[in-house]
Amino acid sequence: xxxxxxxxxxxxxxxxxxxxxxxxxxxxxxxxxxxxxxxxxxxxxxxxxxxxxxxxxxxxxxxxxxxxxxxxxxxxxxxxxxxxxxxxxxxxxxxxxxxxxxxxxxxxxxxxxxxxxxxxxxxxxxxxxxxxxxxxxxxxxxxxxxxxxxxxxxxxxxxxxxxxxxxxxxxxxxxxxxxxxxxxxxxxxxxxxxxxxxxxxxxxxxxxxxxxxxxxxxxxxxxxxxxxxxxxxxxxxxxxxxxxxxxxxxxxxxxxxxxxxxxxxxxxxxxxxxxxxxxxxxxxxxxxx
Length: 289
Ligand code: PMP
What we know:
Bound molecules: 4'-deoxy-4'-aminopyridoxal-5'-phosphate
CATH topology of the largest domain: D-amino Acid Aminotransferase, Chain A, domain 2
CATH superfamily of the largest domain: D-amino Acid Aminotransferase, subunit A, domain 2
Number of domains: 2
Order of helices and strands: EEHEEHHEEHEHEEEEHEHEEEH
CATH architecture of the largest domain: Alpha-Beta Barrel
Shape: globular
Structural class: alpha+beta
CATH class of the largest domain: Alpha Beta
Number of strands: 15
Low-confidence stretches: none
Largest sheet: 9 strands, mixed
Number of helices: 8
Helix content: 25-40%
């Protein structure tokens, strides 16, 4: 990535990345007191923007931080960020903190939030990951009780994802009290006898925009789905496992903790869903062109 030509947004200004600075007293730096969003843009158009802005509002409400912009203002800022950066496909990172104040846990009064946005080229996952699948490891979900908030304080997620990397795997599948929640940076689905199994959108997982799209596509195309709490044994015995996220789209997990998932190859329901997802993306981008 060429950081010197990258244009970012900070507190009302577009400027080169190298010139963007925040105070060491920013509460994001001191406390991890903030929230974020990641929005993919295909063919220079933000994908599912309304859904991402709705989730941002949910995160802001969750930490009691007022939204500094209307959705129309966000849409304008995002359009400008895309226009000022190179690449047809970009991924946009939005980051808001409770601003700069002398260090005290309690909320500061009359302080403006810090608003930062950057764009990075969006590189799709390697083709072979879809064709042969990826490896994952599992771990106990030791995060807090508000995983529905997209909080910038990601230390548990960082440690859990590193566990996957340490084992040459792509993701860590999390179980809380023996029940599937999600991945360290993705949502997880299973398939059992042709039925898609998904954990419920509660406080133990991030409500993924891709998760919603997968369920929407399944419903529209008559693929049966069941939302529920699934124990570790059932997940390990599933025919298929997938991970989903805005940047990784849908990937088949074909090994979990060094054992094959189902046949050890991407399954038929994955192939169907992957095709539906790509078709949906193409249609949306064509419609908005
Ligand atoms: N769960 C977690 C913990 C995540 O960090 C992410 C996004 N990287 C997701 C789920 C997937 O969400 P989305 O589909 O909106 O990218």
